[in-house]
Design a protein that fits this description.
With 475 residues, the chain is α/β, with parallel strands linked by helices. Helix content is 40%, strand content 19%. The strands form 4 sheets. A 7-stranded mixed beta sheet has the order 12-13-14-11-10-15-16, with helices on both faces. Strands 7-6-5-8-9-17 form a 6-stranded mixed beta sheet, with helices on both faces. Helix 3 packs antiparallel against helix 5 and helix 8 runs parallel beside helix 9. The longest helix has 21 residues. It is globular.
């Protein structure tokens, strides 16, 4: 099946399109689509702002009904959406199907949560007054989404915006715009007004990012991507105090204590480290393993990683796909080679890359000061760091500018609580390798960003609180 045969994206393909979408596994050109320039995006923002007025006046139930219709269409087209994700991002088809279900869950969640945007009443300061608050939509929003989860990163932002009564304009990653366009098509088919949610694929990412931050009608920008780009957007948004939600880089520690269930910890690493070839913001970036179980844990992990099958995500049996492109694979290979040169041992995998592919790799003898332990790897490489005791593990884990996600494995409930509270991260998973869910607040601290996605907090990020003082209430 070729991308041209998929009706969800066929209408967007242009023979003369400036954006060329490629399959990272094969290098084949999937198709070409139009690129939006700043003037075109500005006009789209104007239309979105006009459309939000009527949308905000809809009842929460009416908005919920349309979001539910969108959710139903996403699930009805799950197989085709998964194929598009795999073809343009490279991830194994089974993972792509999981992403469709995960992304759809945010639409369903916020379809319901939008009906619970409650205000409050507050005791007044005099017999003649009453105090109340209401929540209102923030206005026209913009979003910039990455290529590693091209469907879920969009629904995680668009669903709460629409549920809150906002309009939203999305700039998807240049590498994976087709999934975004397919979502837009399904949303419009569900009855969501066309101007209310628009996808603006572009080759001018920097210019559109600056436009989102400085356009007078954009009240909020949600960005998922690197800390470096987040810092640039934050500075630009300061010009008109545009509200920001930033989900930025990570350097997640995966801590294995000597009382851990080692088999469970190994499976947790497989889920966290090697899913999407290590290209996730909450990926286990460093494995911190206590002295007493270090060798046994590494041996079990090497055996398990050896069972991964690298290949084209569309091929049966593939469990490890390519990175997004050859440049990223070469960058990861350079990190591995640097660590090898510094004396680290490669237990499985290697330093070489082949096109966009990099083998699943485990390295021991890593120390916290090495680039491979300080940088966000964003590839299928697991550096293992030894530690001695609880305090040592906490010190190493917190020695980073990032604070997105952390993982720990232990069967000592006292230790679990102490370490969980001491870790300087927005999210901590205990004895689990995957922590993201639509019902929980997703986000980080330090230079991993601000704001939360998912849960009731994710809806609140698209709403303003209005306080009303009601006077003259007594005779």
């Amino acid at each position: 099946m070729t991308i041209e045969t998929l009706a969800l994206v066929s209408d967007y393909l242009r023979a003369d399109g400036a954006i060329v979408v490629e399959n990272p596994a094969t290098g084949a050109v999937l198709g070409r689509i139009a690129s939006h320039d700043a003037d075109a995006v500005s006009a789209i923002i104007d239309k979105a702002d006009a459309a939000r007025i009527a949308w905000a006046q809809h009842s929460a139930q009416a908005r919920s009904n349309l979001l539910r219709a969108w959710h139903g269409l996403i699930l009805a087209h799950a197989d085709d959406l998964a194929r598009i994700i795999t073809l343009e991002s490279g991830k194994p088809l089974a993972e792509a199907k999981g992403e469709v279900a995960y992304g759809a869950s945010y639409v369903e969640w916020f379809a319901e949560e939008g009906k619970r945007a409650y205000g409050e009443t507050i005791p007044g300061f005099s017999p003649r007054s009453r105090i109340l608050t209401i929540r209102q939509p923030i206005g026209t929003c913009a979003a910039i989404t990455p290529w590693n989860f091209p469907l879920a990163m969009i629904t995680r932002k668009v669903a709460p915006a629409l549920a809150a009564g906002c309009s939203i304009v999305v700039k998807p990653a240049e590498a994976t715009p087709l999934t975004a366009l397919a979502l837009e098509k399904l949303a419009h088919e569900a009855g969501i007004p066309a101007d209310l949610f628009r996808v603006t694929a572009t080759k001018s990412s920097s210019a559109i990012g600056a436009l989102f931050c400085t356009h007078p009608l954009v009240r909020k920008l949600s960005f998922t991507g690197s800390t470096r780009v987040g810092q640039i957007l934050m500075a630009q948004a300061a010009q008109q105090v545009t509200r920001l939600s930033l989900e930025l880089g990570g350097n997640a520690p995966f801590i294995v204590f000597d009382d851990a269930d080692l088999d469970a910890a190994v499976e947790g690493v497989l889920a966290s480290k090697y899913r999407n070839a290590g290209q996730t913001c909450v990926c286990a970036n460093r494995l911190l393993v206590q002295d007493g179980v270090h060798d046994a844990f590494v041996a079990r992990l090497v055996a398990r990683v050896g069972q991964l099958r690298m290949g084209d995500g569309m091929a049966d049996g593939t469990t490890l796909g390519p990175l997004i492109d050859a440049r990223e694979a070469a960058r990861v290979a350079a990190l591995v080679e640097d660590a090898r040169t510094a004396g680290c041992a490669i237990k499985i995998g290697g330093t070489g890359s082949d096109g966009a592919f990099h083998p699943a790799t485990i390295m021991t003898g890593v120390t916290q000061d090495m680039p491979i332990a300080q940088d966000e790897i964003f590839g299928p490489v697991a550096p293992v760091i030894r530690f001695t005791d609880e305090a040592d593990a906490i010190r190493i884990a917190n020695d980073t500018i990032y604070g997105l996600a952390a993982y720990l494995y232990s069967r000592d409930i006292g230790r679990v609580w102490r370490v969980m509270e001491a870790l300087e991260y927005g999210m901590v998973a205990v004895n689990e390798g995957i922590l993201s869910t639509e019902t929980a607040p997703f986000g980080g601290v330090k230079q991993s960003g601000m704001g939360r996605e998912g849960s009731s907090h994710g809806l609140a990020d698209y709403m303003e609180i209005k306080y009303a003082l009601m006077g003259g209430m007594a005779g």
